[in-house]
């Protein structure tokens, strides 16, 4: 077994455990922290697939900005396990049935992909997901739209400061 395979299986286990703990945690803040761990595991998978840009964006946007927003909302709502109403047995049964149906669909998809002939993804080959290639495209072919979007973002930041400024 190579180091790449070991890393893949470790990241997969981390992603699965993190996703399960998001659902099973009683404390909403702990759920958000487990979701951050899941996002980091998914970013590790992106790096293994040679897609560094997606990994960085996933960490910055999802594990960073979105999770901070989730934490603020949870803390402002002051959620805890005592404030949650107890779910009826019918709602729990509906959840189990929906999860079972989803599991059947996933098993069916895995079986279909196994029948395709064992095609595998290229790992550590090619240069499609590299940040260098994206930078070369942005600063050669798409220079004008890149600069226009930067001016748009700058004007949005100035507008946010002006609107948020007190008299």
Question: What keywords describe this structure?
Answer:
167 residues, mainly alpha, Four Helix Bundle (Hemerythrin (Met), subunit A), 2 domains
Per-chain topology:
Elements: H1 3-24, H2 28-48, H3 52-77, H4 89-114, H5 131-138, H6 143-164
Helix pairs in contact: 1-2, 2-3
How is this structure best described in words?
With 167 residues, the protein is mainly alpha-helical. It has 2 domains: 3-129, NADH-ubiquinone/plastoquinone oxidoreductase chain 6, subunit NuoJ (Four Helix Bundle (Hemerythrin (Met), subunit A), Up-down Bundle), CATH 1.20.120.1200; 130-167. It contains 6 helices and no strands. The protein has helices at residues 3-24, 28-48, 52-77, 89-114, 131-138, 143-164. The N and C termini lie far apart (65 Å). The relative contact order is 0.08.
Describe the structure concisely for a colleague.
The protein is mainly alpha-helical and 167 residues long. 75% of the residues lie in helices and 0% in strands. It is flat and about 55 Å long.
